[in-house]
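Readers of this paper often ask what the protein records in our data store actually look like. The remainder of this section carries one protein's record, kept here as part of the documentation.

:::
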Amino acid sequence: MISTSTSSIIKRNFLLGLFFIGLSISLIAQNKVQISLDEVTLKAKENNTKLKITKQDYAIAKANYEQTRAVILPKINISNTSSFTNNPLNAFGFKLLQKSVTVPDFNPDVLNNPGQVENFNTRIELLQPLINIDGWKKRKASNLQLQAANLQTERAGDYLDLEVIKTYMQLQLAYKSVTVIEKAKETALENKKISKNSLDQGLIQNADFLNVEIRVTEIENQLQYANSNIKNVSNYLSFLIGENNDIIYQPNTALSLNVKNFNEATTLNTNRGDIQAIQFGVEAQEQMLKSSKLSFVPRANAFANYEWNDSEVFGFNTNNYFLGLQLSWDVFGGYKNIGQIHFEKAQLEKANLNKDNYIAQSKLELNKTKRQLIDVRNNVTLSKLALDQSEEALRIKSNRYEQGLEKTTDLLFVETQFQQKELDYLQAVYNYNYTLSYLTYLTK
């Protein structure tokens, strides 16, 4: 007979156990967050690190383009120079700049031994490019590279959308798989109960019952992996939306077949963002080649400076100005210019080959994916047919087993087959939906 104190301890431990189980369930529920595809897409657009890196590539291209304004805008420089010398020539020159030369300064002894003379010069210099044709071509090339970077950023956003859709559907598939396996576990546990009764009545052997137990263990192991997969996909989804957390996400819609039709006659859109970006890259390289060829053309620049000279720091006692126009022509630069032309020509040829290769690969990928869509669509139909047939076979076998007309091994085989057919059908639906989304991405 159990004593009152022992009974109290058992009751207390039981209540504590219920408390901790309830707490665990509560924590799991708190960490599981429902989320929609639109929410994921929006968060990814705002927070995805890879997309931010691509946007910085655009910012770099924009900064490079801004630097090319130097070929049309003036350059202004302000300087203050302090000089000290006893050099006869420079000393007399400083006095001339300061407009302080007097008759005694022409004394040979003073000219030869001027002592230390100070000069403080404040100068404003301006350089205005007038004709710089090769620089203009480089500026145009930089502008084309900027447009290419902008299109690449947009295309990166399109790819991120595809990756989000793919991951979201993987999460839907993971939850569906867990549901299928949990249902299979319920069936297996029910069959285990029936098998135990049959074993107790001597209708089946112990080996048959062990096979049923093995089946239950296998399903529990599959369920563990399926739940881990939900966590893995959730973690990757967190990565895509730029959040570092251990939240278990749950899609607010279940995996279902996308009935959207796709026009299989659709061809590659050469105006697609990434292809246009490559084309802009080729055109930019053409401008760079023209720039190299025009490096032999003379350049014209206007320059001017206005300065103050004084014997005192930051003095503005005397002033003068200097204006001019410079025409320069690099006639021969030690074969550097010619070598640069050859370099840019090779770069242009490489850019054209890369463009042709990229377009050819894109066409191959599009044609392969269109054929794949037909295959996965057929697979969905066949998988659904196989699932229906397997479900009917399981129903018949289960009824006969309960009546003792079927072997345990036969029932276990049909159960396993039905579960696998359910998972195969879900995978076929996922493959079809993703292939359709991928085709939309390829033809956007």
Remarks:
- The CA atoms of residues 304 and 341 lie 33 Å apart.
- Confidence is low (pLDDT under 50) at residues 1-7, 13-30.
- The chain has one domain: 35-80+132-442.
- The two ends are 78 Å apart (CA to CA).
